[in-house]
From TrEMBL:
Residues 249-387 form the C-type lectin domain. Residues 402-458 form the CUB domain. It comes from the Eukaryota. Coiled coil: none annotated. SUPFAM superfamilies: C-type lectin-like (SSF56436), Spermadhesin, CUB domain (SSF49854). This is Uncharacterized protein. Keywords: Disulfide bond. Pfam families: CUB (PF00431), Lectin_C (PF00059). The keyword ATP-binding does not apply. Residues 341-351 have a biased composition (Polar residues). Residues 341-367 are annotated as: Disordered.
């Protein structure tokens, strides 16, 4: 920042801050007042306009930089929760962004996300509180919940242990109101002071649930409380025999790796460390499985981008999978009406690695319904999708592709031919023929990257 400035937000229950409050400098820090114990400060961005080349806003270190227009920012990135755990909280302004935001104090348990495989938490005891929790497990796992609520001793007759709960439709709850959202399904229950302790068991339909808890009891009444335990329940048709966090795709298990973004080669090295490679996608069914895995990943957003295992770094235009399987299927982004079709590398821009994404500039969100492919510079940092074998030898188990015909042209001058099951040895009792056709007045040049012939006695 060439001209440093710092201003401090007023410590209010509800407040507003905008670019008119900031000196006309090319950078500033808006200091956020530390929240009181068991409280937090929620800041929500309502207006933004700054070209990304000229500036941005950042809510805290190691958080996304926000630039462009507000409708280009994913909705989850437009807000930020400052808690007592944040040291010296501040909003960073780079350049001169036009913006407006509203901030308000909330309870410390506002919009809490849990992604652990199992765990528990407690709410209360208190007579006034507003909390929201989301439990989001990897795709292919349901959430098995157990809830305990109330103020009195356990009454066996009132004990409700069921996966089907009748909705409590009281208009006004003078105690603890609990609402549970499971996809399109919703359930509401009111627990009032003096009610017997109630235990409820629920198994979700999807891989995430949301709990909204509001406690508004009268003074001089028993404090209300809630205990929640959860654990994963695998969906065998989706997970198969794969490890937790992985789902079955053909003869492989695949997983979305979101801990840190990496360049393509570093992502491939991490997948090798995990026992496999960057994921290959061999048909439409595997593409659909990957779509579901990524769309339903914990913390997923429409702007997420993932590396997959395809690259044409060896020969421009000849894409191949890092696991050695044939490149027999593609899901390229077709482009907008007049431009941006993929792949669009002209051989000089270094776009040699393939990423999967739902959002394609210049169009803003919501993006496409599927993760389409785009060739990109391999040094860009993305999340990535890994695969590892689900069977002892996935190459041997894969379907053998035989008797293919490859037609070369001016726009497609190269092709890769491999033996069935490559990189494994040629299978027994199989005869395959690959026919390669070149345009008139052209000859074929063969380059063997690997050639191994077996000598068998007559």
């Amino acid at each position: 920042m060439s001209h440093y400035c710092a201003i401090r937000l007023r410590s209010l229950r509800v407040g507003r801050v905008h670019s008119g409050h900031v000196p006309r400098t090319h950078g500033c820090r808006i200091l956020v007042p530390p929240p009181a114990p068991r409280r937090a400060l929620l800041l929500e961005l309502h207006k933004l306009n700054v070209p990304c080349a000229l500036g941005f806003i950042r809510f805290a270190p190691n958080t996304p930089t926000l630039c462009g227009k507000l409708d280009q920012i994913p909705i989850p990135n437009r807000k930020f929760l400052y808690t007592a755990a944040h040291k010296n909280p501040a909003i960073e302004l780079h350049g001169r962004p036009t913006f407006a935001a509203i901030y308000r104090t909330v309870d410390h348990c506002h919009d809490v996300l849990h992604t652990a495989r199992n765990g528990s938490f407690e709410v209360g005891p208190t007579i006034k509180l507003s909390c929201s929790y989301e439990i989001h497990l990897p795709y292919g796992n349901r959430v098995a919940l157990r809830l305990q609520m109330g103020t009195g001793p356990m009454d066996a007759k009132e004990n409700d242990v069921s996966n089907i709960i009748h909705e409590d439709v009281q208009a006004l709850c003078r105690g603890m109101e609990l609402s549970l959202e499971d996809g399109e399904s919703k359930w509401r229950h009111c627990s009032q002071p003096g009610d017997p302790l109630r235990s409820v068991q629920i198994v979700s339909e999807g891989n995430s649930v949301r709990l909204n808890i509001s406690i508004a009891a009268k003074k001089n009444t028993s404090a209300m409380w809630l205990k929640v335990w959860w654990m994963d329940k695998a969906v065998e048709d989706i997970v198969g025999h794969c490890d937790y966090g992985w789902v079955l795709s053909g003869d492989f298990c695949i997983s979305a790796v979101r801990e840190a973004k990496k360049a393509w080669r570093q992502a491939e090295a991490e997948c090798v460390r995990l026992g496999g490679h960057l994921a290959s996608v061999l048909n439409e069914r595997q593409q659909q499985i990957m779509d579901q895995l990524l769309i339903h990943a914990p913390g997923a957003g429409v702007d997420d981008v993932y590396w997959i295992g395809a690259t044409d770094a060896v020969h421009e235009g000849e894409f191949r999978w890092s696991d050695g399987l044939p490149f027999s299927y593609a899901h390229w982004f077709p482009g907008w009406r007049k431009h941006s079709g993929q792949p669009n590398d002209d051989g000089t821009s270094g776009q040699d690695c393939v990423e999967a994404r739902r959002e394609f500039p210049p169009r803003p969100p919501p993006g496409t319904a599927t993760f389409m492919w785009n060739d990109r510079g391999c040094r860009e940092h993305n999340y990535f999708v890994c695969e590892k074998p689900s069977v002892e030898d996935p190459y041997e188990a894969s379907k053998i592709l035989c008797n293919e015909t490859i037609v070369l042209s001016h726009s497609h001058p190269h092709a890769i031919v491999s033996s069935p099951g490559f990189p494994r040895p040629y299978p027994d009792d199989v005869e395959c023929v690959s026919e390669i056709r070149a345009p008139l007045a052209h000859t074929l040049k063969l380059h063997f990257e690997e050639l191994l012939t077996e000598h068998e006695p007559q």
